[in-house]
Design a protein that fits this description.
Layout: H1 2-21, H2 27-33, E1 36-43, E2 46-48, E3 51-55, E4 60-66, E5 71-75, E6 80-84, E7 89-94, E8 100-105, E9 118-124
């Protein structure tokens, strides 16, 4: 009987090893690790969209394209500052760690009306997050 119990234990251990090494992550888990992509066009004298809503702690990938000339894209609170040349696209990855409304500014002079080229990043508090 001891030999039978020993074989059963070895078989259970072998099955357990196969089960743990052949685990494939669920698509939902894989998607949760990918940043959310938000496309933005910078053009005289606006950002489209002008308001971006995200959640605190969410991984974000901003894909910013210039629609007409040299622009800048800056969100001071999150140390985001990129130059966007005519016809170019830049990618900005970051994770907002604070809730609130933060200004988005054109950081490169782009002509008369430059000072009006603004947007907003609205970061909603993550449920259960500390203020």
């Amino acid at each position: 009987m001891s030999d039978t119990v020993s074989r059963i234990v070895r078989a259970c251990l072998a099955l357990s090893a196969v089960a743990t090494t052949s685990h494939v992550p669920s698509p939902a888990l894989a998607q949760a690790t990918e940043p959310r992509v938000i496309e933005i066009v910078a053009k005289r004298f606006e950002f489209v969209p002008a308001i971006i809503e995200v959640t605190q702690g969410e991984r974000i990938r901003l894909v910013v394209k210039s629609g007409d000339g040299l622009h800048g894209f800056g969100i001071k609170r999150f140390d985001v500052s990129k130059e966007v040349a005519r016809g170019e696209t830049v990618t900005i990855d970051f994770t907002p760690d604070a809730a609130g409304t933060f200004p988005i500014l054109c950081t490169e002079f782009c002509g008369n009306g430059h000072e009006d080229m603004k947007g907003e990043l609205v970061v909603k508090a993550r449920p259960g997050a500390q203020p």
